[in-house]
Design a protein that fits this description.
This protein is an alpha+beta fold. Helix content is 22%, strand content 30%.
Amino acid sequence: MFASMNPVQNLLVVATLALGALSCQTGTHTATASEGTSQTPAAMPLGVFSLSLAVQDIHASLAFYEKLDFHQVGGDIAQNWVVLQNGSTTVGLFQGMFPANIMTFTPGWGLHKETLEHFKDVRDIQRTLRERGVTFATEADETTTGPASFVITDPDGNTILFDQYVDRPKP
């Protein structure tokens, strides 16, 4: 299936699958009769997912995504970056800011950039991933409580940014 699609189509399929997986985070999964009676623990909440695309011509890219009914919800085209949404799908277009596409998780924000009262702090996510043996390209300073970020790379070289813009949630 992926071999017949261009890279943008591949990324949109991956983003759609990731967003679908994130939208299923409701605590625990109750098994159906055919699955037995056990429960699967909830997945670690990573934050709102977006796809940051490194584009060559931001005006052409914006015009293209507008044809797909995305609309601008942030950014500044004069600064060569915009954030677009279509429903629950968020795509950022960035010209000249980084060399490749980046998957981004934003702990602490809801879909419309509202600050959440309860969420898993980026430093706690980092600590859990470190315990699981994940290697970091950059790390958040775990002695801080304000905005922080870290970067990891998957086995295929895809960059994943965890970027928290808000303070650690109150206990």
